[in-house]
Amino acid sequence: MRILIVEDEPVISSGISTALAASGYQTRLATDGEKAWFLGDTEDFDLVVLDLGLPKMDGLSVLKRWRTAGRQMPVLILTARGAWPERVEGIDAGADDYLAKPFQIEELIARIRALIRRSAGHGSPVIEAGPISIDTRQMRVMIDKANVAVSPLEYRLVAYLLHHKNRVVPPGELIEHLYGDDDARDANALEAVVTRLRKKLGADVIQTRRGFGYLVADKLE
């Protein structure tokens, strides 16, 4: 899962980025509104954490531009405590949730998990498809309810496919959402990860649609 953090205070942005990385997310950072608008308009993100008080362009203007352009990624806005008019305006502009500063990082991560799940059509923190399931709170992968040991990268791949279960996910989309900007992005490396997961999960859990991508479905074929 790939998250855009829009925050101009270095201590806050660093804390959010570190916590999200530890929770299995890839992040990009924007420290002003113009860069935030450009990244959100030209790249795909599973969610945006958006501060409203930004240099160059305020957060509400950024959000309104995204929504006018048809960008539908979930947006969680950060506001000053007690600034309820900003929260109302943010929700009306297309935000999906808000969190007042100062906040507990555990609450931020819980809200992020919930927003990403709901945007993919899942209400429960446990997502299932056939014999495989994940617990998004504990970052666990299970086959027939038994835990399977996976690496952080393997977990991210399984989690993305399960969030988008019953849909064929193209390799390019998977690569975009699995790897950081400094990581080597290669289709052969992705196939190697899939091969390792098939040895752990079973050969048919992650299905290949030649020329189209990968699929995790409720019913195995």
Structural features, described:
- The chain has 221 residues and is an alpha/beta fold.
- The chain is 42% helix and 21% strand.
- The protein has helices spanning 10-22, 33-42, 59-68, 84-93, 105-119, 152-163, 171-178, 187-201, and strands at residues 2-6, 26-30, 47-51, 75-80, 97-101, 126-129, 132-135, 140-143, 146-148, 207-209, 213-215.
- The chain has a 5-stranded parallel sheet with strand order 2-1-3-4-5, with helices on both faces.
- Helix 2 runs parallel beside helix 3.
Question: Which helices and strands, and how do they pair?
Answer:
Elements: E1 2-6, H1 10-22, E2 26-30, H2 33-42, E3 47-51, H3 59-68, E4 75-80, H4 84-93, E5 97-101, H5 105-119, E6 126-129, E7 132-135, E8 140-143, E9 146-148, H6 152-163, H7 171-178, H8 187-201, E10 207-209, E11 213-215
Parallel strand pairs: 1-2, 1-3, 3-4, 4-5
Antiparallel strand pairs: 6-7, 7-8, 8-9, 10-11
Keywords:
221 residues, alpha/beta, Rossmann fold, Arc Repressor Mutant, subunit A, 2 domains, 5-stranded parallel sheet, 4-stranded antiparallel sheet, 8 helices
Q: Which sequence of SSEs, written as H and E, runs from N to C? A: EHEHEHEHEHEEEEHHHEE
Strand order of the largest sheet: 2-1-3-4-5
Rg (CA only): 18 Å
Number of strands: 11
Number of contiguous helices: 8
Uncertain segments are: none
CATH class of the largest domain: Alpha Beta
Task: Report helical residue fraction.
Answer: 40-55%
N-to-C terminal Cα separation, in Å? 26 Å
CATH level-4 homologous superfamily of the largest domain? Response regulator
Examine the coordinates and then state which fold CATH places here, giving the name of the CATH topology of the largest domain: Rossmann fold
Main sheet? 5 strands, parallel
Q: Could you tell me the strand content as a percent range?
A: 15-25%
CATH architecture of the largest domain: 3-Layer(aba) Sandwich
